[in-house]
Amino acid sequence: MSSILETEDWWVLALYFAALIAVAVWVVLQKNKNTEDYFLAGRNVGWFVIGASIFASNIGSEHVVGLAGTGAESGMPMAHYELHAWIVLLLGWLFLPFYFRSKAFTMPEFLEKRFDSRSRWFLSVFSLLGYVITKISVTIYAGGIVVSQLLGIDFWYGAIGIVVFTGLYTVIGGMKAVIYTETLQTVILIVGSLIITYLGLQEVGGWQNLKEIAGSNHFNMWRPISDPDFPWTGLLFGGTIVGIWYWCTDQYIVQRTLAANNITIGRRGAMFGAYLKLLPIFIFLIPGIIAFALAKEGVLTYEKSDEVFPVLVKTLLPVGLKGLVAGGLMAALMSSLASVFNSCSTIFTIDIYKKLKPTTPEKKLLNIGKVATAIVVFLGILWIPIMEKIGGGTLYKYLQSVQSYIAPPITAVFLLGILWKRVNSKAAIVTLFSGLFVAALRICAEIFQDSLSGILLSFATINFAHMAIFMFLISVIICITVSLLTNPPDYAAIKGLSFGTLTKEQKLDNKQSIALSDIVLSVVMVLIVITILSYFVG
User: Fold this and answer.
1) Closest CA to 406 of 445, 447, 434
2) pLDDT of 184-230, one tens digit each?
3) What is the rounded CA–CA span in Å between residue 406 and residue 414?
4) Distance (Å, rounded) from C-alpha 421 to C-alpha 423?
5) In angstroms, how far is the first alpha carbon of the chain from the final one?
6) Which CATH number is 7-393 given?
């Protein structure tokens, strides 16, 4: 296998890695004084860095590869997931004030303060298993493919090399190293991808030509309810349920906003991240459609959807820029891995180890966090041979399916816990375990669907996004019913952690944290989302 990069590209790539190392070294020299420094960057990060870090955490190499491939294969339906930008606003406006008031390091810790330790243990263990089996393994798999194709090296060398490099600066620098290197990586990734979109549109003859060549179906986000892959009801409503879990309750994303020193900065970071979240439609999905059109015109060829983005890099970009975009793709891989490494480290150290040994000194906790990250890196490498045997397209759909099954009960518990003070600890834990049980049933039904019939077969084959809707409704019913049938929580103990438990001072602080410019920018964001949804109608 030969590399698509030439000498000038290698120089550009080398400069990128040198800059990355320089940022990581600068952060390490700042030193981490305690767990707040290591896991939340000292709670002193600006809104620009927070927003860039949110975007970089979300956009992994599997996201780039998967979105471009889906754009080529199916067109615009997956844009619904990218328009979850408005849900990131929900994080800043609804959830973040309660997280800040709780002074929690992690989402499991918040659940304990709102409910009890059972909910915390459930989410801690559940999150760690989920991260290792899905986020880390999928990112390593897709990243290995990208690196091997771009650099012309063996899959194993590419995947392990990137994982080890990322793991090293994550272990040494903690959250601060992750969040500042992600800012650099975001700029690289966006610039490189914008260039591909621009050159691709030029090659295909402009926007109108692209629409004519690709066909109207590729530009239609609203597929029929009966569509087996992308029913609009599932994408709009089921996708929103998954989106609230991912953007508003998952440690992986929320940890970035908790690194701010006040609610205003955290909210603005979330808002900036929301605006950046709109970009993948134009820098990953649209290039996929461009590749589909260029393939119809005979300008380029690809055998499977996973190859679309690397093929575009090879076909469209001049020498030098290929190196920049190769750096951007590796940035996507490294930023996602770094984020999940740090989140796993935080959850293990704060929610499991410190819970078992509460008197552990700060310095030892820092070392435990580093060891935990190293273990996660090792587990990620162990998963590589398994991921290598799974097809890229199947893997991406599998990831979306799993998220649709695990999100609904967690979304229901967090959302109801914040909106309704009557929800108690029994309702929370019953809802979480009930959701886990239904998710396990669904996965087992999918595995053995060939031997099923009737209602069981329908249960096994219903679209995963529609399944998310049903599971969410069941979770809400269970949570409300158990709450009403059992004693109310101790409202004094959960003061400030749910609507209806806010003091006058807390209400005033919340009001003072809101600026008119923030409201205006949020309204503009919602209008942009509505405009995009309205434009891509077949």
Assistant:
1) 434
2) 767 777 888 888 899 999 999 999 999 999 988 899 999 999 888 88
3) 13
4) 6
5) 41
6) 1.20.1730.10
